[in-house]
Design brief:
Elements lengths: L1 H17 L1 H136 L1 H19 L5 E3 L11 E3 L8 E4 L5 H8 L3 H26 L9 E4 L3 H10 L1 H9 L2 E4 L1 H77 L22
Parallel strand pairs: 3-4, 4-5
Antiparallel strand pairs: 1-2, 2-3
Helix pairs in contact: 1-2, 2-3, 3-8, 4-5
């Protein structure tokens, strides 16, 4: 580069000495050539820089490739180790899964067996319950037949009277002892009430009538029009008043029966209907001393009568007990006198025993004194003990 610059400078100096114009052209050419030369120089420097950069990049790439190869070798070793580990783990997993599957199969078989057993047991219980349901259905069918029979009984006047009589008799029989009542007993007037209950303390018996008219009540319940209901109501009221009047005239006998009689209604529904819609009839029965009773009220009344009878028996027994207590007190007084006399005898005997003990004590003392007396030959005359009167020395 220095030689080229000197040649160029010599050329320019030569041209400048020859001609100014040529000098200018030569300067222009020189400038051009300098520009081209500079560009060449710049391009060569860039090429060298790029070569150096390429070499550096190549070296970096080689180092990176070496690192990658090293990493690849390490990865290969790790992959080999991991494959061995995965192989062992896979075998362990297969073994564990096989054991778990065997256990699950065993438990499943047991569960299926238990489920089958439980299903069989449940089916057996279901059959038993179905048998119970069949029995209940049969009982319901029988009850339906009995209800139909009961409806037929209540529809027939004579059968209905027998039904009311049987219910009344069952209540009385269950509540009172034998001999405290009588069915179809004949009074002095010749009438035969359905039941008489004998009262305590020789009081007149209580009369119970069980023949209650139900035709009007059934007509009232079966009425579909206001006119039919009005007619049935009037009929039912008339039947009630007539039955109350008959009981008063036939069964309320002064001196022979109680001044109150029971009219037994064999249905709680009929009893409620009378007290709810026929207040005038209830007041009429009250004034006539006829008490309308349902099965529950009759049962309660019978229990009251039973309590009265029990109280009367207790009072009778109380008199007997009182007499026995008085006799016991007399015996106790005599026993007290005899004990006192015996105590006196025991006191005198104690005194006599004390006197005997005193005498025996004196005798013992005298014997000891006699035993202490000296009778030897060596005893001197003046030293001999002397007995005095009274036994004392």
């Amino acid at each position: 580069m220095d030689s080229s610059s000197a040649a160029l400078k010599a050329f320019i100096d030569g041209v400048a000495a020859a001609d100014p114009l040529l000098l200018l052209g030569a300067g222009a050419i020189a400038i051009f050539l300098l520009t081209v030369f500079t560009a060449l120089l710049v391009s060569g420097a860039r090429s060298r820089r790029m070569a150096r950069e390429a070499a550096e990049r190549s070296a970096e790439m080689r180092s990176e490739i070496a690192a990658l190869l090293k990493t690849q070798s390490e990865m290969s070793g790790r992959m080999h180790s991991m494959s061995e580990i995965f192989g062992s783990r896979q075998s362990e997993l297969n073994k564990h899964l096989s054991e778990r599957l065997d256990g699950i199969g065993h438990r499943l078989n047991q569960s299926v067996g238990e489920a089958s057993k439980n299903t069989t047991e449940n089916l057996r219980r279901l059959h038993e319950r179905l048998a119970v349901l069949d029995t209940a259905q049969k009982n319901i069918t029988d009850l339906a037949g009995q209800v139909t029979t009961l409806s037929n009984i209540l529809g027939n006047k004579q059968s209905r009277g027998a039904f009311g009589q049987s219910r009344m008799e069952a209540i009385v029989t269950d509540g009172l002892p034998k001999g405290a009542y009588a069915f179809q007993a004949t009074l002095a007037s010749g009438v035969r009430p359905d039941c008489v209950v004998y009262m305590p303390n020789e009081a007149p018996p209580l009369v119970i009538d069980a023949k209650f008219p139900l035709e009007g009540f059934h007509a009232l319940k079966d009425a579909e029009t206001p006119e039919a209901a009005k007619s049935a109501t009037a009929r039912f009221r008339t039947d009630l008043l007539k039955h109350i009047s008959d009981i008063k005239e036939r069964y309320l006998v002064p001196g022979e029966t109680q001044d109150t009689a029971f009219m037994f209604v064999p249905s709680e529904a009929v009893f409620a209907e009378i007290h709810e819609n026929f207040e005038a009839v209830v007041q009429r029965a009250y004034r006539a001393k006829v008490v309308i009773v349902s099965p529950s009220l009759l049962m309660l009344s019978i229990q009251v009568v039973q309590a009265l009878l029990r109280d009367a028996r207790l009072r009778e027994q109380a008199h007997i007990i009182q007499d026995e207590v008085m006799r016991l007190m007399d015996d106790l007084g005599r026993l007290d006198d005899r004990v006192r006399k015996l105590a006196t005898h025991f006191g005198q005997a104690n005194k006599d025993i004390d006197q005997i003990l005193i005498s025996t004590d004196k005798l013992q003392k005298r014997g000891q004194r006699i035993e202490g007396l000296g009778f030897g030959e060596e005893a001197e005359e003046g030293d001999k003990p002397r007995l005095v009167a009274g036994g004392e020395s």
